[in-house]
Amino acid sequence: MTQPSVYGRRIGRPLNLNDAPSLVTRSLRSAELAVVETRDDNPAPGLCGALPSEDAYLVSLKLRDYADCECWERGRCVIKTDIRRGATYLYDLKRDPRYVIDKPFHSLYFYLPRSALDDLARQSGARIGELAYEPGIGHDDPVVRHLGSSLLGALHRPSEVNQLFLDHAMLALSAHVAQTYGGLKRSTELARGGLAPWQVKRACERLESDLGGSFSLQQIAAEFDLSISHFSRAFRISTGLPPHQWLLHKRVKTAKQLLTVRDLPLSEIAISAGFANQSHFTRVFSSVVGVSPGAWRREKHGGSEDQR
């Protein structure tokens, strides 16, 4: 999560936002990937400013309807159309994409540099052309909607985001965009089996050694001389879970062990088990187990629910 404010300013300022919530990762070796939330309920009207011209794309998930949107590329209006909530739009930063701001807006933008897409192609032993899209024409893309929903929660609670989750989500987004809009075929490398038993053991030990999740997928995959995509897929085949989900369940298992200590406060358990705080611990534990940590402790030991 490197220098998130840089991308918040880069994408936010052309929309007259001083900054915008953002998260950044290096889940691919050659480039940073970012997700940025832009929202203005009372914008100043006019043509938005220019985004930096570079060999990169923005994939945008619209979170609000925007009627009669006037879309521009290369200094001229190319289409005027209704933007629908939940739709996905692509922008090529080499084409100077802009639009006329004249009503409230709310969107997520995924920043994908060309070098990141080329990285994916090299891992697959393939090439990828320009992403296929028409300016101002949306796509019904459930994968982008799902990933966008997950990352929107992360943007609103950045202290609770672990590096493995962010790496996984942005890698999945990049691979999906490359395959869906760039014609990249699924790598035969990814179709192979799981990790060797010794690799599973070492990977799990590495993850368990840092329940806070500060290790990146790149760091762990590099230990086995594997690409990030190959490692993530093989780990899931071997364990039944992607790395970030495996770590989450390990946190919950650790928390359960600590909850057997009757007088240990929930706040201390939360930190010891790798959660950002007690609220984060309660939310994740309740989602996985079905009851709150205090209720689970009460069921095991009886007595009132410990909320310390």
Textual characterization of the structure:
- This protein has 308 residues and is α+β, with helices and mostly antiparallel strands.
- The chain is 43% helix and 19% strand.
- It has helices at residues 4-12, 114-123, 142-156, 163-181, 188-191, 197-208, 217-223, 228-239, 243-259, 266-272, 278-289, 293-301; strands spanning 22-28, 31-40, 46-47, 56-62, 66-73, 76-83, 88-92, 98-101, 105-113.
- The strands form two sheets. A five-stranded antiparallel sheet has the order 1-2-9-4-7, sandwiched between helices. Strands 3-8-5-6 form a four-stranded antiparallel sheet, with no helix packed on it.
- Helix 3 runs antiparallel to helix 4 (163-181) and helix 7 (217-223) packs across helix 8.
- It starts with a helix and ends in a 7-residue tail after the last helix.
